[in-house]
What does this fold into?
Amino acid sequence: MESCLANGRAIVAQAKTQVFEDIFRFFTEQLANGVIHPGDRLLSERELAQALDVSRPSLREAMRALALLGLIDIRPGQGTYVRNPDATVLREFFSVMLVLQPNMYQSALVTREAIECQAIRIACRAARPQDIQRLRDALDRITETAPDPEKGADADFAFHRTLVEASHDEVMLFVYDALQPLLRRDHAVRRQAIKDRPEVQNVMPLAHKLVLDALIAGDEEAADAELRRHIQIPQGYEELVENGERQSSRVRAPG
Ligand SMILES: [Zn+2]
It folds into this structure.
């Protein structure tokens, strides 16, 4: 009886999810196709339920979820209005979803590399002087915080996010920010791994400086290659240290 009831609940929950997905898809398609716009008033609940061929309670529930996502504004007695989507809210949901999914960590790192390497290529052409200055500041911060695993991880994340920002590609930045909790965790793990290795800490700024130098030179191939090498660092610590010793005169924070 219990399993029968539980099963029944699961079926009802699945049906509700399907209704929500259908309504969500319908709504986003209407937005994407320019049929509805932020500020528009939607059809009444009765008309909408009829048009979508769903029950009014199901529709009401889905609309509440859309309101929670910040996509619509339900004004009692006035109607339901399309809102200007709040990217921050949607990104937070996306972000939580990624964190909760199992096995997303490795996938997030692959996506990170794809986004950053494409972003730096675009930044080679699109970066503005203020972006370069912000990257120089971020590099200074990496140099200052090298021995501190926590602050070092924050500084490292900030440098890489600034790189993505320098592409001025909003969608890449949006996805990158959604990955933020996973990426921060990765930076923290990497910094913990070298907390007792000052010889590696000392060359961390160099790896970032080489990336920044290539970006400033507008050399897409070199920037992509330096960044990819740096992102794959755990396998390359020894090479990094060796490289750093050879170029120790260049390890100084940039002026
Ligand atoms: Zn880094």
